[in-house]
Amino acid sequence: MKLVLATHNQGKVAELRAILEPVGLELVGYHGPEPVEDGTSFLENAFIKAKAAHQHTGLPAIADDSGVAVEILGGSPGIFTAIWSGSKDNVANRQLLLAQLKDIAPEHRAAAFICTIALVTDDIQTSFTGIWPGSIATEERGTNGHGYDPVFIPEGFAVTAAELEPEVKNALSHRAQAVSALIDYFRS
Predict the structure, then answer these.
(1) CATH assignment of 2-187?
(2) Which of 14, 22, 147, 158 is the most buried (most CB within 10 A)?
(3) What pTM does this model have?
(4) Which of 38, 64, 65, 149 does the annotation list as catalytic?
């Protein structure tokens, strides 16, 4: 089955294509207009993107929305993860988060990466969510990964996601969990 991934991020297309093609799902990139993500949750934003890609291409579409939710910040940055500092600058976003938590003890820095994938076809609208629990470090560590990986310590680890080998991170992450649920859906 051919699916369109509602993103202009070709790195994300390549990453998911490598995961989905072995299970018989052909993934193509999206080249249409980018919709306004004005939802109030990862779920709403994922559906906004998937619906737009489906309407534009006529193909079954998937889209993800993801971010980090910090418990002591009431779940923020949440849907504002990518623009937490007011821009899409990953370094500025991480630095702001660390500054906001500077006086918070390590045992009160619980957080989770959350990823919701929406699937939209002519007949189906469903979603799959992965949650990767952990905490926020007191400083940036590691060079693997992107986004908030250098400040996120996955539960059960003493290192950040950016210090994990990519294969380990990609097997455990919030996105890996959501993609696994998507694959299970297509297999059933």
Answers:
(1) 3.90.950.10
(2) 147
(3) 0.93
(4) 65
Known catalytic residue at 38? no
How confident is the model over 88-113, as pLDDT tens digits?
Answer: 999 999 999 999 999 999 999 999 99
State CA 90 to chain mean position distance. 14
Q: Where are the domains of the chain?
A: 2-187
- Mind listing the pLDDT tens digit for each residue in 144-176? 888 999 999 999 999 999 999 988 998 999 999
For residue 127, which phi and psi values (nearest 5 degrees)?
A: -145, 165
Sign of CA dihedral 139, 129, 51, 4: positive
